[in-house]
């Protein structure tokens, strides 16, 4: 039996904020289920408590609560909060038993009763004023206690590896901006040092010297200062235009300052090549500057783990695993204002759907496309709304647009939704034109409070799921809301259910399908067209480009072969569904 109070108490009692502990852990092995006092509460010690032993906690303890469920868990959460515990960690929501291990590739499956239990514990934690953490099923309690206690004892972060990762992100961003603007891009810090640049020929003398020297040559920098370019870049988000100067070897340029509040961080420069810059280059630059600011802050302050925590919190909110207040504690969003979710799914590029050997592109290629999509979505949504949040979850890119307000033109929320749809269509079109990526997107319904965004995300997922199953390749539905395609989504979900359960298939329809495959009589296609035309033989025949009498014969033959009674409306309906399933 484990002791009731395991772990070494810090002699000085100085620990670290819960937020920093989560940052140091890196991977999201602990999900924030409730944070009534925010994430800056102090953790001084990490203890394991088994309810069969004496339950005792001190102020500042992170308590790992093992082997307890239901009402007993609620009582212990309340008691630990009363004793001053900072946070309580549990395995709830259908997670595995304390000592059971699950392969890392396995996804935790939460039962309905387990999800209800986690919601109950979350409510108890909110009322008691203690943070509640949900532990992933594959995590062993003893390992978690050891790792967390070491972090508390060290009370510092080590992020040296993050800097290289951030630099790589900046080069990816530079390449994305180049494709969106049609120019050659360099990203510089506030001292005009080149941090990243895009590939491409047709460089002018200024770009060549800047890239080779990793800093703009002083003679050119003096000219830019003389023209007031740097003053404008430091002043705000205005896109600055620098006209061509052939005598100096300088081609036309656009530039925009990168800022964190009022503090200038650097600038993005776009040099025009032999072709003019794209029509929307300035808008793309504005969004890119706002997105790049986050990456430069990560480089400058070594807080890349903080950005990952924000993404983890957003993912957890979208999955309904945390309270909206936990995200609002880290990001400046209002929990009682309207929000909605847009989702983007990456398909194979049109120009190269498969590799030369007929196989799917290898992992580096897929990873590059995924990173490009994330950057592109981030750029466009940041230009649309500064408070937008982007994360990846399950291979899809999600955008949360919080703090929405009714449009002042009398159309209320409808105007907001139409504006977001326009943004989403523009993003999908840019992915095709600038990156050669085919992307499908869905916009969830607007919800009145931040805590309800899982509903908006769920609607967007339903649309994307239907697109992948039954609307793939239909360019008319590259972007949609559930109200646009509700009937098609419902049919797609019904067909998916039928496909998953062979017992729901009518053997008479299966008999007809096998007969058609063996004899090539085209009875299935003809019968489906007839049913879709509500029994109008002339309309169905016209659609099939055959004579109505030919169609009538095929329908009678289909009924004879299968034994289906086409005079029965129920049999007609189910036959049509199963034939649609066969076509899919």
Q: How would the blueprint of this fold be written?
A:
Layout: E1 16-17, H1 18-25, E2 30-34, E3 42-43, E4 45-49, E5 61-65, H2 70-82, E6 87-90, H3 112-128, E7 131-135, H4 141-154, H5 160-181, E8 184-189, E9 194-197, H6 205-213, H7 218-226, H8 229-235, E10 239-242, E11 253-260, E12 263-271, H9 281-301, H10 304-318, H11 324-328, E13 338-346, H12 363-384, E14 389-393, E15 396-404, H13 412-435, E16 439-443, H14 453-471, E17 479-481, H15 486-500, H16 507-519, H17 523-532, H18 537-544, H19 548-562, H20 569-583
Parallel strand pairs: 4-5, 5-6, 6-7, 16-17
Antiparallel strand pairs: 1-3, 2-7, 8-9, 8-12, 10-11, 11-12, 13-15, 13-16, 14-15
Helix pairs in contact: 1-10, 2-3, 5-9, 5-12, 5-13, 9-10, 9-12, 12-13, 14-15, 15-20, 17-18, 17-19, 17-20, 18-19
């Amino acid at each position: 039996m484990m002791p009731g109070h395991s772990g070494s108490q810090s002699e000085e009692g100085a620990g670290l904020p819960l937020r920093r502990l989560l940052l140091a852990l890196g991977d999201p092995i602990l999900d924030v289920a409730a944070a009534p006092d925010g994430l800056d509460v102090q953790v001084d010690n990490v203890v394991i408590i088994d309810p069969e032993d004496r339950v005792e906690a001190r102020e500042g303890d992170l308590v790992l609560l093992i082997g307890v469920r239901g009402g007993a868990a609620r009582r212990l959460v309340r008691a630990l909060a009363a004793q001053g515990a900072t946070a309580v960690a549990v395995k709830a929501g259908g997670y595995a038993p304390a000592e059971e291990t699950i392969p890392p590739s396995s996804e935790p499956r939460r039962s309905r009763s387990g999800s209800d239990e986690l919601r109950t514990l979350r409510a108890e934690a909110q009322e008691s004023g203690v943070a509640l953490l949900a532990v992933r099923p594959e995590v062993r309690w003893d390992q978690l206690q050891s790792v967390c206690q070491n972090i508390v004892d060290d009370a510092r972060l080590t992020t040296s590896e993050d800097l290289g990762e951030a630099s790589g992100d900046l080069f990816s961003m530079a390449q994305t901006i180049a494709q969106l603007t049609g120019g050659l891009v360099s990203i510089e810090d506030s001292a005009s040092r080149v941090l990243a640049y895009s590939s491409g020929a047709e460089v002018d003398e200024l770009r060549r010297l800047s890239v080779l020297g990793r800093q703009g040559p002083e003679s050119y920098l003096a000219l830019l200062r003389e023209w007031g370019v740097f003053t404008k870049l430091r002043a705000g988000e205005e896109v600055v235009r620098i006209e061509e100067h052939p005598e100096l070897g300088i081609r036309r340029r656009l530039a925009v300052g990168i800022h964190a509040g009022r503090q200038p961080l650097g600038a993005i420069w776009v040099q025009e090549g032999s072709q003019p810059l794209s029509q929307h280059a300035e808008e793309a630059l504005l969004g890119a500057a706002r997105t790049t600011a986050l990456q430069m802050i990560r480089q400058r302050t070594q807080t890349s783990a903080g950005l990952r925590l924000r993404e983890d919190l957003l993912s957890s909110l979208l999955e309904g695993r945390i309270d909206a207040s936990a995200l609002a504690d880290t990001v400046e969003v209002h929990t009682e204002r309207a929000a909605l979710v847009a989702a983007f799914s990456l398909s194979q590029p049109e120009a190269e759907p498969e590799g030369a050997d007929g196989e799917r592109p290898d992992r580096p290629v897929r990873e590059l496309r995924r990173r490009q999509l994330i950057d592109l979505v981030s750029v466009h949504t940041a230009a649309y709304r500064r408070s937008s949040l982007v994360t990846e979850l399950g291979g899809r890119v999600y955008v949360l647009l919080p703090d929405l307000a009714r449009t002042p033109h009398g159309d209320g929320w409808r105007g907001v939704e139409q504006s977001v749809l326009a943004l989403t269509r523009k993003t999908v079109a840019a992915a095709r034109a600038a990156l050669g990526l085919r992307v499908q997107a869905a916009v969830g319904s607007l919800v009145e409070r931040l805590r309800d965004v899982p509903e908006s995300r769920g609607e967007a997922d339903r649309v994307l799921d239907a697109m992948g199953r039954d609307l793939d390749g239909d360019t008319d539905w590259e972007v949609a809301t559930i109200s646009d395609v509700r009937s098609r989504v419902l049919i797609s979900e019904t067909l998916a259910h039928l496909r998953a359960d062979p017992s729901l298939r009518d053997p008479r329809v299966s008999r007809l399908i096998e007969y058609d495959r063996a004899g090539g009589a085209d009875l299935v296609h003809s019968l489906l067209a007839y049913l879709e035309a509500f029994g109008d033989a002339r309309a169905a025949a016209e659609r099939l480009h055959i004579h109505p009498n030919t169609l009538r014969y095929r329908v009678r033959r289909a009924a004879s072969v299968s034994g289906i009674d086409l005079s029965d409306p129920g049999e007609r309906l189910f036959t049509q569904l199963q034939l649609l399933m066969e076509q899919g």
